[in-house]
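Late entry, written up from scratch paper. The run itself happened at the end of the previous shift, but nothing got recorded in the book at the time, so transcribing now.
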Amino acid sequence: MQINRFIYVINFMALLIFALCISPQTQAATSTTVINTFKLTAQNLTNKIQFGTCWTSSIAAPRSDAWRCTVGNNISDPCFVTKKTNTLVCDPNPITKKPGFTLHLTKPLPKQNTAILPQNEPINFWILAFEDGSYCMPYTGTLPLLHSNNSDKVIAVRYYCSDSIECKLNTNCNKQTGIIDESIKKSSLNNQNNLWTADKIIYTTQNNGVNTKITEIKKMVIKTVWK
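Output as recorded:
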């Protein structure tokens, strides 16, 4: 009996070691990848076509080749300039592989698009992708305002995140997530070999967004940044 038990234990340990060896291991990021240029593909340009105009620089992606545009009563931001005259690609998402749509301008772009932020404003990023698979993108309209739990300070949430639970009309949300600019930590803006982090705020909304409460703050590792 003792021998059989010993053999059973040996076989079990061998199977366990084998399983650990063949199981895929998720490696933690050692540096944050910074992508300065979003490359458009043929897929972006062959998707559905709409017609509209652009009137100012993009809020979501403050770059010289990105614009804020309208199609009817709908706003699209960002819309990226292409090599084709009066043709842009709007609302693509490199993470979800969403191609966006092609925008044909009904009138030319304005002459200047400086995309320069005031000196006292934090630098913005188009997309922040995290190790856990979630990603965050900037609001381009009214920002949610949160009251800090430990003070009277009001916090503006600059980015909304993909793991938020969508609010439906006239209902409360028990899990909204977002990022504030001040929490994005990086030792050097020009050094792409650093590991960046950000605090993801988890909050609830009640009374159709009138009352908000921070329930948790998680420090997250940023895997990739699109500017």
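Residues 36-105 form one domain.
(Scratch paper discarded after transcription.)
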